[in-house]
Amino acid sequence: MSQQRHGVTPGNAPGDRAGAVSAFPDLPEATIARLPEYLRALHNLGEGGADTISSEGLAAAAGVNSAKLRKDLSHLGSYGTRGVGYDVTLLIEQIEYVLGLDQRRAVCLVGLGNLGHALAGYDGFASRGFKIVALFDADEAKVGEQIQGLVVRHIEELGRVAVEENIAIGVIATPARAAQAVADVLVDAGVTSILNFAPCVLSVPANVDVRKVDLAIELQILSFHEHRKASLTALPGGRSAAAAGNQEAVGS
Ligand SMILES: NC(=O)c1ccc[n+]([C@@H]2O[C@H](COP(=O)([O-])OP(=O)(O)OC[C@H]3O[C@@H](n4cnc5c(N)ncnc54)[C@H](O)[C@@H]3O)[C@@H](O)[C@H]2O)c1
């Protein structure tokens, strides 16, 4: 019988061993991207009263296939127990540890326009390990405005406040033309992770991680799939399979 093994936990991370240089397994990017999905599913399962969960059950709850899930979790050294599955609490702890969510990370938001207001007003980040601690804008008319208990400050204060508040992650929600300058200020203030909503590529030093969110790109990818599905059902001559079926029915 295979035993549940948790290879990377706060107590036994490889980095805790003498001589080890890194506390982290070398995880594929795609695995890292799925870990938050597993975590969300595990929290829901835990809140529903589940103590253990099979790989199939967790895969279904996370919307991935179970072979992929087992492979992902094996990268963390977690194999579950045959016939029992994964211990929900342990797996939550392990994923949170690997994602660094056992430490709450301070986030600042730059650009309090339409998008920035929506992000600043969303209260769901805190329960997932992030606290927005400061808001910045360049528009004097917005400086001083209160959103969810935070006062919008002038962008010129960012450097000082980022250091004071120990800001780890900066979110950019300014127009694209301002984003690079904002990124430069964040980097100068020691911020090494940036989430960029502006539709542009940022130039940053190698030690800074940038993630980009672009809903238009997601829609364009869905548009490709719509296009592909339509072309799969299309027949030579430009007729769709459905239309051809109708014509045949009429002719028969
Ligand atoms: N990723 C996505 O899916 C997505 C969706 C919507 C919008 N966006 C992008 O997000 C950004 C914001 O969109 P929006 O609709 O909220 O725009 P907006 O014009 O309503 O707001 C932009 C805000 O940035 C501020 N700003 C401008 N220059 C600044 C600077 N140098 N420093 C600090 N603040 C500055 C402005 O004063 C304004 O408050 C845009 O780049 C837009 O293209 C992305």
Task: Explain the overall architecture.
Helix 1 (29-47) crosses helix 2, helix 1 packs antiparallel against helix 4 and helix 2 crosses helix 3 (66-75). Residues 1-7, 9-21 and 242-252 have low confidence and may be disordered. This protein is α/β, with parallel strands linked by helices. The longest helix has 19 residues, at 29-47. The strands form two sheets. Strands 5-6-4-3-7-8-9 form a seven-stranded mixed β-sheet. A two-stranded antiparallel ribbon has the order 1-2. It is built from nine helices and nine strands. The protein is globular. It has helices at residues 29-47, 55-62, 66-75, 88-98, 114-121, 158-164, 176-188, 215-233, 241-251; strands spanning 52-53, 86-87, 105-110, 130-137, 146-147, 150-154, 169-172, 193-196, 209-212. Helices cover 42% and strands 15% of the residues. It binds nicotinamide-adenine-dinucleotide (NAD). Nicotinamide-adenine-dinucleotide binds next to helix 5, strand 4 and helix 7. This is Redox-sensing transcriptional repressor Rex. InterPro entries: CoA-bd (IPR003781), NAD(P)-bd_dom_sf (IPR036291), Rex_actinobacterial-type (IPR058236), Rex_DNA-bd_C_dom (IPR009718), Tscrpt_rep_Rex (IPR022876), WH-like_DNA-bd_sf (IPR036388), WH_DNA-bd_sf (IPR036390). Homodimer.
Write the layout of secondary structure elements.
Elements: H1 29-47, E1 52-53, H2 55-62, H3 66-75, E2 86-87, H4 88-98, E3 105-110, H5 114-121, E4 130-137, E5 146-147, E6 150-154, H6 158-164, E7 169-172, H7 176-188, E8 193-196, E9 209-212, H8 215-233, H9 241-251
Parallel strand pairs: 3-4, 3-7, 4-6, 7-8, 8-9
Antiparallel strand pairs: 1-2, 5-6
Helix pairs in contact: 1-2, 1-4, 2-3
The structure holds nicotinamide-adenine-dinucleotide.
